Target: DUF1579 domain-containing protein
Amino acid sequence: MIKKISLPVIAAAAVLGLTGVAGAAGTTGVASAPRPAASSPADNLNPGPYHRALNPLVGTWKAVKTNYLLGTGGKPVVSRDITVKVNWISKTGGRFLQEKTDGTLAGKRYYRLGILGFSTIDRRYEWTTFDSVTPTAMTYRGAPVTAVTSVLSIPGEFTDPGVLGPDYLGKTIPMRTVVTLSGKPTFDLYFTPPGQPERLVDRVVYTRRLK
Model:
């Protein structure tokens, strides 16, 4: 069982790769066989249907963030003042999405920059975030996909700077972001501490699109 840690320390975990449906749903469209080859060199360079599948994320959103690490008594911390702005980076030729998140978390200011894209040569989604608390980039690389899907499961790992307690300091922690594109866009973040089952640590739901 993970040891209880202080609020200031565990707050860092809440912003690791955040934003934030679980389990088997995250494997939709993931291939177990080697990726298929692109039909031409141009397919390896130009945005395609896997990029266009991300269009539901584009816009300015009011979001609700639920953090399961910060809560006490079994109740999570919920932030309702989160604003998320997502746009294609035009100078990359529309190859990468930029996400900027602003708001508060447990009473403190919170900011995160995320870059989401699809590697046509690797046939995988790639997701990297930088935030106002975590001392490292959080990097995720998905498995090769064989079909466009509305649920992206993108795994990664990070070296724990102490967010899960002193017993995990310096250890490699597997993580996974699951992005649900249909309905209300949702980002779920999971950690799998050594010797522990995978657990949901943060969820962000785009609840209302701002005009």
